Amino acid sequence: MGFFEKKFTIVVACKANITRSAYLHGYMEQYLKDHYPYARKRIRIKSAGVRARRGSSANSVVKHVARVNGFSLKTHHSDPFTKKLVKEADVILVMEQWQKEELLERFPKFGDKIFRMMEYLWHEDPSDIRDIPDPTGQNTADFEEFIEVAHAEVERIFRELGREGII
């Protein structure tokens, strides 16, 4: 990779950028560091919220869950989508169908890079694709379900990016 070559930019997104996308951003960074350390020079991870306000901290429960999983979200601050962010992204991974639809409406020229997380590089039965559950304000079981799905999807996506020669 040349000195000025663009990194492959993944933007993970949810509604407010304080729970799911905040966690996934941190987890993806940690996963790259642990499993694909050479790829950190090739891939950039960012996060945003479809309806986020700038500067909110990560949800306190998800901060704790991040610590338990070996990384910190204490410096995370939410960001809303901007045209600049959408332009620089190679792929935007949203959690729910309504978020995809809203981004497609706001940024129709960039529809080829907006996916629900489970849609991206999915090679199985399309009927198995579903939204990533929002545990915000829910119980421990809901957070556990989110973490299980989030970890499985990150592992799957990075494995597929490896097969595609991106990492």
TrEMBL record:
InterPro entries reported in the protein's UniProt record: LMW_PTPase, Ptyr_pPase, Ptyr_pPase_sf
Occurrences of domain Phosphotyrosine protein phosphatase I (ranges): 8-160
Entry's EC annotation: 3.1.3.48
Domain of life, source organism: Bacteria
Reactions listed under catalytic activity: O-phospho-L-tyrosyl-[protein] + H2O = L-tyrosyl-[protein] + phosphate
Classification via PANTHER family: LOW MOLECULAR WEIGHT PROTEIN TYROSINE PHOSPHATASE, LOW MOLECULAR WEIGHT PROTEIN-TYROSINE-PHOSPHATASE ETP-RELATED
This protein's name: protein-tyrosine-phosphatase
Native source species: Pontiella agarivorans
Species classification: Bacteria, Pseudomonadati, Kiritimatiellota, Kiritimatiellia, Kiritimatiellales
